[in-house]
Amino acid sequence: MAFVSITRLRIRAWRFMPAFALHAHRSNAQVRQADGFVGGSLLADRKRTFWTMTVWREPEDMRAYMRAGAHAAAMPRLSGWCDEASVVHWTQPDDTLPSWMEADRRMRGDGRPSNVRHPAGTHGDLSFDPPRTAYPVPLRPRHPHG
Description:
The structure is a single chain. The protein has one domain: Alpha-Beta Plaits, CATH 3.30.70.100. It has a six-stranded antiparallel β-sheet, sandwiched between helices. The two termini are 14 Å apart. Strand 2 (37-44) and strand 3 (49-56) form a beta hairpin. The chain is globular. The protein has 146 residues and is of the alpha+beta class. It is built from four helices and six strands; from the N terminus they run E-H-E-E-H-H-E-H-E-E.
C-alpha cells in the first residue's frame, strides 16, 4: 500500500510570493531526502495557485516530514499567505502517481479546507476552478528508497 497526499494552496496576494517561493524551494529540497518519500509532482495552476502531490510508503513518513525542518517552518505562515488551502489523503495499492484530474476529483470529494485567516468565497466548499494540469514538475527522491 502507498499513502498519497495532495495539497492545494492559493496565495492571496503577489506580495507573499517571494517568501512562499523561498519556503516552497526549501520544503521541496527537504521532501526529496525524506524517509519513505516515493515520488511526487508539483503543479503551478492559475491565479497564484499551487498543488503538491506526494506518495509515501507510510502515513507516518509523511507526518514526520510535515513536522520537521523547512516544511514545519513554512506551515504557520500559510494561514496568512493563503486565501484557499486544502488537503486530501488516501491509500492505494501501489506507488504510482495518480493523475492531476484524479487529485482534483478526490480533493473536491474527500478533501478538507485548512485554516486560513482571510478565506476566499470558494475556500470552505472547495468550489475552486478546475486545475490547469499542463506542465507538472516531477518530484523525485534524491536517494531512492528500497
